[in-house]
Amino acid sequence: MTATKMNAQEIIQFIANAEKKTSVKVTFEGQLATAVPSSVVKLGNVLFGDWKDVAPLLEGLVENQDYVVEQDARNSAVPLLDKRAINARIEPGAIIRDQVEIGDNAVIMMGAVINIGAEIGAGT
Questions:
Q1: CA distance 1 to 104
Q2: For 103-115, how does the pLDDT look when each residue is reduced to its tens digit (9 = 90+)?
Q3: What's the CA gap between 62 and 30, in Å, rounded?
Q4: Spatial separation of the C-alpha atoms in residues 99 and 81, rounded to whole Å
Q5: Tell me, what's the pLDDT at 2?
Q6: In terms of Cα–Cα distance, which of 116, 112, 115 is closest to 124?
Q7: Fewest CB atoms within 10 Å of the CB: 33, 70, 87, 92?
Q8: pLDDT digit string (tens) for 45-61?
């Protein structure tokens, strides 16, 4: 996958201007008392979205008020890379931010942290 190469100043601007989000996945029981906004995805009794949009829905739960929140970041400016189209081996536990370039047949091992702007060459 080829990302647009960014210089240091462009990376700084990208992070500074990016909307900060706390992405969550919430599994809940009960009925939501209010309509789900378009910024939140609801699949069955699971909600996906930014905490600021999901939290008000949980306050209005009727009947059973049990829920579990899963999150992996707080006020994050740079999302994680969508790895589905990468032609490389990426082990569980590798953290790869968006705006990185990973060459074909690279191997990314558990515990690797690859930040915005990094380039991993083919076969590395």
A1: 8
A2: 999 999 999 999 9
A3: 6
A4: 7
A5: 47
A6: 112
A7: 92
A8: 999 999 999 999 998 78
**Closest C-alpha to 113, from 88, 81, 66:** 81
Question: How far is 117 from 7, CA to CA, in rounded Å?
Answer: 8
Closest alpha carbon to 77 in 6, 32, 120, 13: 13
Could you report the per-residue pLDDT of 63-101, keeping only the tens digit for each? 667 889 999 889 998 889 999 999 999 999 999 999 999
33 Cβ neighbours under 8 A, 6+ residues apart: 60, 61, 62
Centre a 10 Å sphere on the Cβ of residue 47 and count the other Cβ atoms it contains: 22
Q: Are the C-beta atoms of residues 56 and 72 closer than 8 Å to each other?
A: no
pLDDT digit string, tens, across residues 22-34: 999 999 998 888 8
HSE-CB of 120 using CA atoms within 13 angstroms: 25
Tokens of residue 4, six digits: 């647009």
Distant-in-sequence, close-in-space partners of 58: CB < 8 Å, separation ≥ 6? 26, 28, 67
